[in-house]
Design goal:
Helix 3 packs antiparallel against helix 13 and helix 10 crosses helix 13. The chain contains 15 helices and 21 strands. Helix content is about 40%, strand content about 20%. The longest helix is centred in the N-terminal third of the chain and has 31 residues. The chain is α+β, with helices and mostly antiparallel strands. It folds into four domains: about 190 residues, no CATH class; about 90 residues, no CATH class; about 80 residues, Roll (Pdz3 Domain), CATH 2.30.42; about 80 residues, Roll (Pdz3 Domain).
Length: about 500
């Protein structure tokens, strides 16, 4: 439960930063071009807000746990109290005059942005005056455009307003990657140092790999390290040379091997990791049984398991059943009885790869970290775009993941380097996803804006409203599907 909470907090931390800076990109360009931003909120605020603030007459004013204010625009009613429509079937509206409001009513100062924090931590928003967005403010759009509204400025000014969030997210990712390299450097285990070889998936074994193989080359090129970029090169290679039993062996891959791995949501391979205890978690079966940091766990019920992953799988199959654990402490063999908990966990955190195998460390100065961070960010974007094509397949839809899947990508401990790396990667994903030409996303607005720039004709606002509604329904359905897949797995 503790690990789930830590992962959830890290995910919320990342998304909060990314959403706030994304919306600040829209806000920044809106204010440059004198377009009003009516509201700027971190998190969503249906019904009420935790805090809202507005600077009025040079003084900041605050409201805490305040209900949302009603719009000044309401339906015009006939003598029977029914909403009135014009000859084309459009609703008619009436607006409460601002001068009739008391000075204490914040709605009397629409030229000032309302800042707030909502209670639903699923994102945030920046409400730009005169823009058809997720607020679906049809009342405002039914009125004549005002000089300070988004729809009143030229398309060349609207272009940076629309793309500002995406640009900020991408630049932010590059800056974070550069900062990570500058602060912590780059550390990895060279492929040749994985002396115990690799564990291969059943699919990989089917094409010729064997557990314990050490990967050497892909299509004649040496494979230096094992990361997502190198994995993509391996999956797309025609031939991979491995070291098996002290001799080099060539494995020829089928042409569609990469597709098979991705669409079957299978792994290709991962380095075999001896199970050396990095930490014994308090109040767990392992601590109560007497295991200590540095113990090397080697067997379950007298069956030997070199790899941590094999060991963990065996333990998981014995939930709440006593098992005999064999381990070495200071080179001396011991055994002990332990009963895994209901989750199939005994409470031992394994040592990391760079703690077991000899790692290589690269330090970056400020001047070196920036180009290296930019290159890393561009490679991450290229890899994500390459994988995105699988979404449009049946298997891709089935493998689509929601918040739980993203949360599992975080460390079970609060790990700042990994947390910032995940934040940078999610920033790239957010930038790419938002630029897709789907109504409801920035890319949808950009699509219609480009149409206007090319043809000189602005799309009908009624059409834009319907497109926005359809796009939001599609995106909501996609989000529900992704999170349902997490639940059903």
């Amino acid at each position: 439960m503790e690990s789930i909470l830590i992962r959830a907090l890290q995910l919320i931390f990342s998304l909060t930063i990314l959403v706030v800076f994304h919306e600040l990109g829209h806000f920044f360009f809106s204010r440059i071009f004198k377009v009003r931003v009516e509201k700027f909120y971190m998190f969503f605020n249906p019904w009420f807000s935790i805090v809202r603030a507005k600077k009025i007459n040079g003084k900041w004013r605050f409201h805490f746990f305040a209900k949302n204010l009603k719009s000044l625009n309401t339906n015009a009613l006939d003598y029977q109290g029914n909403p009135q429509k014009d000859s084309e079937g459009n609703y008619l509206y009436q607006t409460t005059p601002i001068e009739d409001l008391p000075d204490t009513d914040w709605r009397k100062y629409p030229d000032k942005t309302e800042w707030g924090i909502g209670w639903l931590p699923l994102g945030g928003y920046c409400k730009i005056a005169g823009m058809i967005d997720e607020s679906m403010d049809k009342v405002q759009m039914a009125q004549a455009p005002k000089p300070w509204e988004y729809r009143a400025v030229s398309p060349w000014k609207r272009l940076p307003i629309i793309t500002g969030g995406v640009v900020v997210n991408f630049i932010m990712a590059l800056l974070i990657y550069s900062a990570i390299l500058f602060t912590w450097g780059e550390e990895y285990v060279p492929m040749k140092n994985y002396k115990a070889g690799f564990e291969f998936s059943p699919l990989s074994q089917k094409v010729g790999f064997q557990n314990g193989d050490i990967i050497l080359k892909a299509d004649g090129s040496l494979v230096e390290q094992y990361n997502d970029l190198e994995i993509r090169k391996l999956l797309s290679a025609k031939q991979i040379v491995v070291l098996r039993g002290g001799q080099e062996t060539t494995v020829t891959l089928p042409a569609d091997f990469s597709n098979q791995v991705v669409l079957n949501k299978d792994f290709f391979a991962f380095p075999r990791l001896p199970f050396v205890a990095r930490e014994i978690i308090k109040n767990t079966p392992a601590q109560k049984a007497g295991l200590l940091k540095g113990d090397s766990l080697v067997s379950v019920n007298d069956s030997s398991y070199y790899s941590f992953f094999d060991f963990a799988a065996k333990i998981n199959r014995n939930k709440q059943n006593p098992v005999k654990i064999g381990y070495y402490r200071h080179g001396i063999a011991h055994s002990i009885m332990i009963t895994p908990d209901s989750s199939g966990i005994i409470g031992v955190r394994p040592s990391l790869y760079n703690q077991v195998f000899k790692a290589k460390k690269i330090n970056y100065g400020l001047a070196e970290s920036i180009p290296a961070g930019i290159s890393l960010g561009i490679n991450k974007l290229g890899g994500y775009i390459s994988d995105f094509k699988y979404l449009f397949t049946k298997k891709g839809v089935e493998n689509l993941g929601g918040f739980a899947s993203i949360g599992k990508m975080y460390d079970v401990e609060w790990n700042w380097p990994h947390l910032w790396e995940m934040t940078a990667f999610l920033s790239i994903i957010l930038a790419f996803m938002n630029i897709l030409p789907i109504p409801g996303l920035d890319g949808g607005h950009l699509l219609f804006l480009l149409f206007e720039l090319i043809t000189g004709r602005k799309p009908n606002e009624k059409f834009l409203e319907k497109a926005q509604a359809i796009g939001m329904i599609f995106l909501l359905g996609l989000m529900i599907l992704a999170n349902a897949n997490d639940f059903l797995r």
